[in-house]
Amino acid sequence: MTLKCKICGISDSKTLNFIINHKYPPQFIGFIVNYPKSRRFIEFKKLNDLINIDKKKISFVAVLVKPNNEILEKIKDLNFDFYQIYDCTPEEIKHIRQKYKKKIITAITVKNNNDVNKYEEYLDVTDIYLFDSKGYEKSLSFNHSLIKNLNVKKDLMLAGDISIDDNLENYKKIANIIDISGGLETSGLKDNSKIEIFLNKLKLVNNET
Fold first, then answer.
1. Alpha carbon of 53 to those of 16, 32, 41: distances in Å?
2. Contact 88/96 with Cβ under 8 angstroms?
3. How far apart are CA 2 and CA 209, in angstroms?
4. Where are the domains positioned within the chain?
5. In Å, how far from its chain's centre is CA 5?
């Protein structure tokens, strides 16, 4: 199985162009759309300018925390393929999916097994499940073994303090996609040298199997 990846929290054109034009680009790039608590948050005008480019074969992801109608209407014509949604009910996500015709990544924040099992409620409205920590902007970790034996018949994405120093092979046993953000930063900013190391390492892991 090929381990795919999403690089999240991109907020500047230099980094974005570096990633898009990399010889081993990620399958997904995420942008923080409506969560100002995150240092990776992008104001709408800048976001509009930033992602109005040829993304090649990469899927652009709008990361949304309990989005309201105002933000959903503002971004509806932007260059996004997926909405990654936190803190919404299945009914709310169903409405967003139907109205805006976007693919959905449902984010499940995890502390224990009860949290993991919430994925079943979103089965009919989800294209990809993201299991993340409850840290949101803080890139905290959680016990990945909690989802190791899930029998989910949809792609499973894993986030939560993933680092370029991790053994990426271990993630292939748990998820289809890994979601990395803070692990590619130096002093709070995306570091292209770390992105280079990560994408090359992921390519090597995938070529070994």
1. 10, 17, 19
2. yes
3. 8
4. 4-207
5. 8
63: which 2 tokens? 């990361």
User: pLDDT tens for residues 77-124?
Assistant: 999 999 999 999 999 999 999 999 999 999 999 988 889 999 999 999
Integer Cα distance of 52 and 110 in angstroms: 33
Tens of pLDDT, residue by residue over 56-87, are: 999 999 999 999 999 999 999 999 999 999 99
| Residues listed for the chain | 209
Question: Domain 4-207: which topology?
Answer: TIM Barrel (3.20.20)
φ/ψ (deg, to 5) at 62: -90, 115
Element housing 85 (H / E) = strand 82-86
As a whole number of angstroms, the distance between CA 7 and CA 27 comes to: 9
